[in-house]
Structure formats: C-alpha cells, structure tokens
Amino acid sequence: MLYAEVIPTLTLDKNDLLNFAQAVSDRFNNPFVDHELMSISLNSTSKWKARVMPSFLGYIDKHHALPKCITTSFAFYIQFYRGDELTDAGLVAKRPAGNTYTISDDRDILEFYYNHKDDSVKDLVHAVCTNTSFWGQDLTQIAGFEDAKPLAEAFCAGGLPCAEVTFRTAAAKESIAIMRKEFPEMLVGAGTVLTVEQVDEALEAGAQFIISPGFDEDVVKHCLEKNVPVTPGTCTPSDVQKCYRLGLDVVKFFPAEAAGGLKMIKSIAAPYTQMKFIPTGGINANNMKDYLEYDRILAIGGSWMVKGDIIKSGDFDKVEALTKEAVKKLREVR
Predict the structure, then answer these.
(1) SS3 of residue 189 by DSSP
(2) Catalytic residue status for 182
(3) Less crowded by CB within 10 Å, the N or C end of the chain?
C-alpha cells in the first residue's frame, strides 16, 4: 500500500519522502506485529489473487483508468516481495534470506522510483504486470484502456477518425467510453461481439456500430431491435444468405485471406448483388489496395497499424505514421 496508494499522493521532497517511507517500514518490520499484508505478499499467491486483485480491478472499474504512477509503484511493490529480477529496468531487488525486509532495500527501491517515475520504468511495469504465472492473467490486457486516448488521437491525426474496439479484453468497454468522450468526431464501434450482453455493454459505453466474427441470430436481431448498425462475420454463401434474410446489406468477410481472399469474395458476391463486404483478417498495407479496388468492398479492417509491440512501447507516433500511409493508399483508389 505504501507504493500503490500513499506515495503517489504525496508532494514531499525526496528526503522527507524517504524518511516517511522509513517510518512506515519500521512499523512494517516490527516482529511483534502480525502484518497480514506481509503474510499475503511473501507466502501466498492465491491470497494475492483473492484479496489484492479485487481491489486492483475495483479501482479500474471505478476510475476507468489506471494511472501510470500506480502501475509503476505496484510493479515495484510486487517485484520486491516476489523477488523477481528485472535487470532491464536497472534495478534488481531480491528478497533477502529468511524473508527479512530491510530499510536499505526499501530506500533503494523508493530512490529508484522517485528518480524514474516516467517512461524509463516501462520495462519494469510490463515485466511485472505480464507475469501470467503469478496473476493468472495479463494485467496489461486489463489496464489496456489507458492507451485508448493516445491511440484515438493518433488515428485522428493520421486522418482516420474511426476505430473498432474488440471485446477480447476487459478494457473494451472503458476504451470505447474514453474514445467517445474525448473524440466525439470519431466513429467508434465494438468488435468481436459474441453475445447479446456484450452488445448492451458496448452500447452503454457509446458504441456506434457492432461487428461480430460470425453470424449469431440473437445478436443480429438484438442490434436491429435497438436500431444499431450490425455487421456479422461470414465466409460462406450460407452465412451471407442468413444475413440477407434478416435484411442486412453489409457483412463482414472473415478471416479474409485464410478463407480465400478477394477471389472468394467475388465468387460469393455474384448472386448477392445488393450485398457489400468488409473483409478483415490478413489485410495489411501490401494488399489493402487490391481489396479496395473492388466496388463491392465497403471498407476493410486491419490491425497492422496497432500491433501489440507498438502499443506496449507507447509509440503512438508510429501509429499515426502508419495510419497516414494507409489513408494515402486508400485515396489512391477511392
């Protein structure tokens, strides 16, 4: 708690901050006091998951964001108590023999945290929060909505004010809400929507359209009842026929490249003269123009501008550059 909640709220100078930490640590070290937190941190991963994670996720749910200062301090906290060696960040904090907590180690960590509050600790935060063997899940997938605002900003600056936020992580709903609030000029929808409940969550967050990987009649009908545009996934004539019977005139073709690409789309499109297609899956900067040159393609979807390594590194300038490149190729065709 010292790092996760208290330190980020203080405005003391460094010496006072260190003295405060030492006073807290002295009490924490008192062998005559039974500290439940020490028991949890040193001995029981299951207790961490049962007692710490609900608070962690509760904060996310309440504030719809996870400030970097808390992520960073939380990373240091876990790194020290679990004894992880994260040398890339320039700090190796091992748990001493006998699980003894020493003041010098505390000061070293706090000193490092104080001097590296910003981007220089990204590797440390990432290494701790992606430790799935410890957490049972990747925390960066939970807290990923922290990237929603800079990502949306990069899209808009790149000339593409549109985004499909996939419901593959717990960050989806919050990401949609942030994008809609901060960038009202954007067209923001929800993707990988599998259930009626997810439709409702997406709409509550402000989603303007729904996209699913396959055809689910309940999901489609629910969207039509709520008068929200829905684009279900298809890859066969039978899939397209089901959508046609429900009155849809636009479908997603997925997974595009694996299912036969443009040649397959043209074959399916022949008998469905009013149907438009949005191919996704395997679309990239090298083949996007081939798809867009076909007049039955309404739009394309791709993730090459937002690869995981780009987002994790926080390189939103690269996202903007790749977006501008994609828009340029689009305008060469349409």
Answers:
(1) strand
(2) no
(3) C
